Amino acid sequence: MEPSGGATVLDSSPLVALSSRLSRARRSRRVIATCLWFVVVVNAVVIVWLWLHGGGVSRVHSSADVFTSLGRITGLVAVYLALIQVLLLARLPPVERLVGFDRLTVWHRRNGKVCISLVVAHTVLITVGYASSEQISVPREFSRLLSSYPGMVTATVGTVLMVGVVISSLVIVRRRLPYEGWYFVHLSIYAGIALSYLHQLPTGNEFTTHASQADYWIALYVVTLALLVCFRLAVPAWGAFHYRLRVSGITQEAPGVVSLHITGQHLDRLDAHAGQFMLWRFLTRGRWWQAHPFSLSASPDGQSLRLTIKNVGNFTSRIADVALGTAVLAEGPFGTFTHLQRTRPRVALIAGGIGITPIRALFEELPAAPGGLALIYRVIREEDLVFRTELEEIARERGAELFFVVGDHRTIAGRDLLSPTHLLQLIPDIVEREVYLCGPHTMMIRTEGSLHGAGVPARQIHSERFALAA
Predict the structure, then answer these.
(1) What is the reported pLDDT for 4?
(2) CATH code of 277's domain
(3) What pLDDT, in 10s, does the model give residues 259-277?
């Protein structure tokens, strides 16, 4: 509308409505977070109380008792953390929507290290405690436990499996393992937990003398198993039947980069948003057992989905060979890298390399104030640009700013690319904007540092660690 003075008044009602929806979503997340933490903490308190009630302190009268009692509590907490470890990546919708897959992965890795440390501590403390009580050497006591105590062999195997999972997750090891090998090693965590169950309940002092404690732990195992079966098996199976996804087209976007177009039925009920990813399983020989995460590279329209994949390994190098009509099993959508994270009307999107995939979808879908949307796309070479024509078209249609930043930061000419000064030159008001960042790990670290150096508060920066699956 035009007032008498000639100034243009912009309609802000869509942004007001967006702000209201975001406030409701944040309140809902706080409620869910409170409930989840309550459950986790209460169970931890119950476990400690059961240990104390069983004489964890009151029955300690010697150094041997100290070692044995500490061995019991470390074992109990280790098993509890192992169950949490499984649930962290069981794809539970409330947890995933609250925290996001990236943060869950970090928690999963840290929790795993604490868990296996407690398992090892439990083994050492119990062995030392028993050896001290019987006044024999630790190696002899360990040999005796293996040969005469029921469940000790299975417990040892379970411990070895858990240690193997932790070792396979170390960065230096993970980079050298093919995805398939890493995946199978991680599946062994379920066997490790099952073996710990066979050791814990039949032989644990607390469980053989207190039936109620055994019932409590059985309930924890049953609930964990039920959630795992529901969300890792039943829900994906239902989705396969309900959505009937198929590969409907394959497009070459750039050298080594292809887009797969997926169609199906009822896709409007999928509740997918730009910025999210899904775990894709192509039901063909040699691929059906592999689930790989790929982001949506176009805003979901309720009719089709698009994922864009770069050739970085065995699986991705053969993805263009998938036949049209191939059935697809997709889990998700996952991720909190969406417009629901934003708190400000102006937005800056920063992408590096193939990290453009979720950013391109956000560029198309993200609500923003007029003139309040800008995208920086960072690549090493001009030929690395993906979706260039699409991005230019979206920028024109939305009145958005678009910057292609090309060059190698290892060279003199490119060393200042995306530095704090460079970012402020491209987007002078970036400090006032919500920033979404996605790309290779090294680029993400450097750019996050530059954003902080430019004065952007950490609460305004939302990152998607773009982990490519080979």
Answers:
(1) 37
(2) 2.40.30.10
(3) 999 999 999 898 899 999 9
Burial of 419 (0-12, 13-18, 19+ CB in 10 A): middle
Say if 11 falls within a structural domain: no
Of the candidates 219, 237, 255, which is a domain's last residue?
A: 237
- Integer Cα distance of 262 and 45 in angstroms: 47
List Cβ neighbours of 251 (8 Å cut-off, separation of 6 or more): 258, 259, 261
Residue 59 DSSP one-character state = T
Please indicate, yes or no, whether residues 290 and 168 belong to a single structural domain of this protein.
no
Structure tokens at 194: 């099952």
Taking each helix axis as running N to C, give the angle between helix 101-134 and helix 63-88, from 0 to 180 degrees, rounded to the nearest 10: 160
* Coil/strand/helix, residue 9: coil
Query: Same structural domain for residues 45 and 184?
Result: yes
- How far is 401 from 369, CA to CA, in rounded Å? 13
Question: Using alpha carbons only, what angle is made at residue 257 by residues 256 and 262, rounded to the nearest 5 degrees?
Answer: 140
The CA distance from 114 to 276, in Å, is 30
C-alpha–C-alpha distance, residues 465 and 368, integer Å? 24
**Full DSSP string of 198-245:** HHHHHH-HHHHH-HHHHHHHHHHHHHHHHHHHIIIIIHHHHHHHHH-E
Q: Do the Cβ atoms of 402 and 391 come closer than 8 Å? A: yes
Residue 255 has pLDDT above 50, yes or no: yes
pLDDT per residue over 333-372, tens digit each?
988 888 888 888 899 999 999 999 999 999 998 876 677 8
Cis bond upstream, residue 333 (ω within 30): yes
Q: What is the CATH number of the domain that holds 413?
A: 3.40.50.80
How many other β-carbons are positioned within 10 Å of the β-carbon of residue 128?
A: 20
Q: Which domain holds residue 351?
A: 339-465
Residues 416 and 454: their CA atoms lie apart, in Å, by 13
DSSP notation for 295-339: EB-S---SSEEEEEEE--SHHHHTGGGPPTT-EEEEEEEE-S-SG
| Pairwise CA distance, residues 223 & 217, whole Å | 10
